[in-house]
């Protein structure tokens, strides 16, 4: 299986604070990869680098064999942990916007999902609740037929039923053969969904393995997380 | 891709700008309507003159507001949370910046053109207010009660030919636009550098960079004004000859300003390519 993400000697720092140091890793296409680590471990920075939101780093980062740029942004669908849509836009205008820029965006599917999510096409983003905005963002990202989905904490701060709804949306609308890199703290809920686990912390990749292999060794993801990141009270 | 970016940038910023442009046109229209009545009295005459002078001042203010507005939208598009949308688009940073630049220039041109038209209307209105004065007032205010043949004769400066006026206006608007482009690029560069790590951690350095470029801009502005307006300052005549003499100097200044703007564009593009780190 070819690699969708290839990283060599990646180092990222904020001033004097180094968050990722000389990281090298390859992630295969077509898999669902769980990105885990404690707060401040560099998960979001890694995702921002992949999405092209951060470009002051050293090392080489390639997606589908290409350096980060216009091509990789065309095949990567990124869901950041914040609402980025212009507040004046109506829901239908956000769909038109995405359809205009992304060749792989399915407008008809987006309109269907808008109706099934019970979102009003004429409602402006600023008039939507936080939950409605999250639904709209998820819809816009998942209606792209991307090769790689980078989802930063899509389950953060939502209730269990909304969590289930989000996971169903991601899994049901994921195109065949696409990869998903999803960061989360909800390890217990997500273990059954992931194909691979990637744990980063202390500036390094501390674990990268398949869930099948970990299960074969009789370990749960939750248990491994506690071993890799022991809580120091 | 560039055309799509410009279309969306124009729509996004234009929807705010339309109020500015619409406001200018409405002000000009109202002032024109108020100055068409014949045989007006002193109160209406004074109110009309004041209104039109206020409009001329407002149009100058509109230019500043327009510049602030395009800079605000640029900052929001690149460096607020909306930056996550902008930088997710499958376009190079050069295209993103170029789109913003073209959008800003188009809107500033529209704003300047509307302001120039409204200013012309205001000057015309002032002339008409004099014409529409009642006979008694006209005799009291104007020597012999006779109106000058041309409205421009009412102004403290006189233009020898209509062509000269048009040429001067074209030069003035061109230089004004070039100055706006330079001011805009300086501001966009400063905004970018202030968001770029690690400069963003050093507000003193940001301020020093801003002051340096502000000093350069102020120097160029003073140089330009001193070259373009000596006749106006000394209340001399605008003639084809004096106008022609001022062209080489003004165009040298314009090319220097455009050169600096291009350099700042390249620097900003480099920062967006290599140093962006969205919060």
Architecture overview:
The complex is a heterodimer of chains A (233) and B (279). Chain A is of the alpha/beta class. Helices cover 34% and strands 27% of the residues of chain A. In chain A, the strands form two sheets. In chain A, strands 6-7-8-3-9-10 form a six-stranded mixed beta sheet, sandwiched between helices. In chain A, strands 2-1-4-5 form a four-stranded antiparallel beta sheet, covered by helices on one side. The longest helix of chain A has 13 residues. Chain B has two domains: 148 residues, no CATH class; 124 residues. In chain B, helix 1 runs antiparallel to helix 2, helix 2 packs antiparallel against helix 4 and helix 7 runs antiparallel to helix 9. Classes of the chains: A alpha/beta (233), B mainly alpha (279).
Can you summarize this structure?
The complex is a heterodimer of chains A (233) and B (279). Chain A has 233 residues and is of the alpha/beta class. Chain A is 34% helix and 27% strand.
Largest sheet of chain A: 6 strands, mixed
CATH topology of chain A: Rossmann fold
Measured by residues with Cβ under 8 Å of the partner chain's Cβ, the largest interface is: A-B, 26 and 28 residues
Count of DSSP-assigned helices of chain B: 9
Could you give the count of β-strands of chain A? 10
Q: Residue share in helices of chain A?
A: 25-40%
Strand order in the largest sheet of chain A: 6-7-8-3-9-10
Q: Tell me what the CATH architecture of chain A is.
A: 3-Layer(aba) Sandwich
How many strand units of chain B? 0
Q: Roughly what is the average pLDDT of chain B, rounded to an integer?
A: 77
Strand/helix succession of chain B: HHHHHHHHH
What's the end-to-end separation of chain A, in Å?
42 Å
What's the CATH superfamily of chain A, by name? P-loop containing nucleotide triphosphate hydrolases
**What global shape of chain B is seen?**
elongated
| Regions with little confidence, pLDDT below 50 for 5+ residues of chain A | none
Percent range of helical residues of chain B: over 70%
Radius of gyration of chain A, Cα only, in angstroms? Answer: 18 Å
